[in-house]
Amino acid sequence: MKNEKMKSYLELHVCQNDDCSEKGSKELRDKLKKWAKEHHGKDIKVFRSGCLGKCSEGIAIACYPERKFLLEVKLSDAKEIKEMMEESIAQYKQKD
Questions:
Q1: Cβ atoms of 28 and 78 closer than 8 Å
Q2: DSSP string covering 15-56, please?
Q3: CA distance 7 to 81
Q4: DSSP 3-state assignment of 70?
Q5: Each residue of 10-60: pLDDT tens digit?
Q6: How far apart are CA 56 and CA 47, in angstroms?
């Protein structure tokens, strides 16, 4: 078995299930992914996810390594999510 450190500090997993997709999760993921790639390279990864079991609470995003959900997310929340990721990435890079 090989043990290797991940290249990313943060990961966002954006639900792409039917309920979340109808609320704009694909567009949100695309927007966040483009931003992360342009501004943080491999430090922040944004993935599409299957159902996270939280679809009744709007677009759901799982955040790692924080191990928390962002729920009831709307497209208009993209700026706030970016700001939150900026703060988190700065903390993780300080520890590294």
A1: yes
A2: E-SHHHHHTTHHHHHHHHHHHHHHHHTTSEEEEEES--S-GG
A3: 21
A4: strand
A5: 999 999 999 999 999 999 999 999 999 999 999 999 999 999 999 889 899
A6: 20
